[in-house]
Backbone:
């Protein structure tokens, strides 16, 4: 076993827990943005991703993403089967040393979980729950695990020298492209653009973005996989990019719409966190401020694209994650200053080769196209076989009550009146009469 | 007997209630309502998308009264609810056949 550093291991276990917290955070962020009749289903899609992806990860996900298949050609595209069930990595340490392989595996697992959960924002209010469960397993298997291998597991994009510190391409472009595909497969919500579909609870949105922001320090600084100066740089860059992006978004709102909004602060912070994700360990803090501000302003406009092009990406997975992730990934080709390997992979500003910028652009394009195509195919197959969309009646009544037999809020006394049956069939009317 | 219904601005409820109490009214029903007349709603913007919200929040207040008190009560409500700006609301009254106090079964004016 390679040497384990206790400081590194302690931090990575902490960072893993931080990243896992992002998925419940995302559930609040997304849940608050839907209408009240869909809040539970929206949150449920995030939570069930924790279930399905974690289990897939243990059995084969880690192995496919982070082990070598042995064959030089196949290994460019997918990992091997050496670590099925995580049996073979018990008691081992990562190659670079520093932490048990199991900790590294757990850390990467939380990335797979949130990437899948991110996609669900594109299909709010209208997805069949069982179909989403199947999709979460199929997409993580056929898209996330291979793409993580391409970029981080020694695959072909890694071979070309792509830089993706914490997942601008692997996580955000990947999820954004899949979200676009699913939005097209499922189609628009009933009444889209005719009825108001306002966020029903902006306080939940802000709670969610707070948890995301907090967890993102584990996501970005943790991706250094060590406790060192680069981790500190990634931490600071994460903070200032989020701040600058939130500021830029509400400034755009003030100038364009007349009001700065809480949804703008929340959306801008996420846009900045997304854009800094690929770049956080490679650039200067001042550059992070600029990148964050650019992401906030660009995404504030990008979320309007769906109205022009006519696709119902309900919670703007495309406008924030695809656009923000691609922006950060490509910007690296210009502003990267502190690459992993000295003298290699710097941005144009620091004397880097134009080929680096090319690879930085190639990554999001190829991953985006692959994820879009696969998500579309998987979505279509699910739609043809089990159906991906609930019926119009169910959608109008609300997916919470028709799919989960629950409502998010019980705020009145009339709606809640009824006869309780704790066990078995409904109690006959009047059976709970109280004789005074 | 008459049923007097007033739809007023929510922040005027306390003034109207106090004025009615001073007049001697002992009971009323209040509910939240939405509506519009000359005062239209407002615009909300979420991620750059504008939503026109037509309905304005209002309070609906109902008082049962004896025939001869009705006009006075209406005057009390109008005076207390008035700001002079668009959106102050409306008050109207309709005749009522029967009123029954559920607890005792009393009917008519005794039940008021």
Residues:
């Amino acid at each position: 076993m390679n040497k384990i550093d206790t400081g590194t291991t302690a931090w990575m276990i902490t960072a893993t827990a931080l990243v896992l917290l992002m998925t419940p955070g995302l559930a609040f962020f997304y849940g608050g943005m839907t209408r009240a009749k869909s809040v539970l289903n929206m949150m449920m899609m995030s939570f069930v991703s924790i279930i399905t992806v974690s289990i897939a990860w243990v059995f084969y996900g880690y192995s496919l993403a982070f082990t070598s298949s042995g064959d030089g050609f196949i290994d460019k595209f997918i990992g091997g089967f050496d670590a099925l069930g995580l049996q073979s990595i018990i008691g081992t340490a990562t190659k670079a040393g520093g932490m048990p392989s199991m900790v590294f595996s757990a850390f990467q697992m939380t990335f797979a979980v949130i990437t899948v959960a991110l996609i669900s924002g594109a299909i709010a209010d209208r997805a069949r729950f069982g179909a989403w469960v199947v999709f979460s397993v199929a997409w993580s298997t056929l898209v996330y695990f291979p793409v993580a291998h391409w970029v981080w597991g020694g695959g072909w994009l890694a071979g070309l020298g792509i830089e993706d510190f914490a997942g601008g391409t692997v996580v955000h472009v990947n999820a954004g492209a899949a979200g676009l595909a699913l939005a097209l497969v499922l189609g628009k919500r009933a009444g889209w653009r005719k009825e108001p579909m306002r966020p029903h609870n902006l306080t939940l949105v802000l709670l969610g973005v707070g948890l995301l922001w907090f967890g993102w320090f584990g996501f970005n600084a943790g991706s250094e996989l060590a406790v060192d100066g680069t981790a500190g740089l990634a931490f600071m860059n994460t903070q200032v990019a989020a701040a600058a992006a939130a500021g830029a978004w509400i400034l755009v709102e003030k100038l364009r719409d007349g009001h700065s909004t809480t949804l703008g602060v929340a959306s801008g912070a996420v846009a900045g966190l997304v854009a800094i994700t690929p770049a956080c360990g490679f650039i200067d803090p001042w550059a992070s401020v600029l990148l964050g501000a650019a992401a906030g302003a660009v995404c504030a406009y990008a979320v309007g694209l769906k109205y022009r092009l006519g696709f119902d990406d309900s919670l703007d997975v495309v406008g924030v994650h695809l656009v923000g992730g691609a922006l950060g990934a490509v910007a690296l080709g210009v502003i990267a200053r502190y690459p992993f390997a000295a003298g290699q992979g710097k941005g144009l500003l620091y004397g880097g080769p134009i080929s680096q910028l090319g690879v930085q652009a190639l990554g999001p394009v190829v991953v985006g196209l692959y994820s879009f195509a696969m998500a579309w195919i998987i979505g279509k197959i699910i739609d043809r076989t089990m159906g991906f969309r609930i019926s119009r009646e169910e959608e109008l009544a609300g997916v919470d009550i028709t799919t989960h037999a629950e409502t998010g809020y019980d705020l009145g006394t009339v709606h809640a009146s009824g006869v309780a049956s704790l066990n078995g069939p409904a109690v006959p009317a009047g059976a709970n009469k109280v004789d005074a | 007997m008459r049923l007097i219904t007033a739809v007023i601005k929510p922040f005027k409820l306390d003034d109207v209630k106090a004025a009615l109490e001073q007049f001697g009214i002992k009971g009323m029903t209040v509910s939240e309502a939405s509506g519009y007349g000359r005062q239209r709603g407002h615009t909300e913007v979420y991620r750059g998308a504008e939503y026109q919200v037509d309905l304005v929040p209002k309070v609906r207040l109902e008082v049962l009264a004896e025939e001869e008190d009705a006009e006075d009560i209406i005057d009390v409500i109008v005076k207390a609810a008035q700001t002079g700006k668009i959106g102050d609301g409306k008050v109207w009254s309709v005749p009522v056949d029967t009123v029954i106090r559920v607890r005792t079964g009393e009917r008519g004016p005794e039940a008021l």
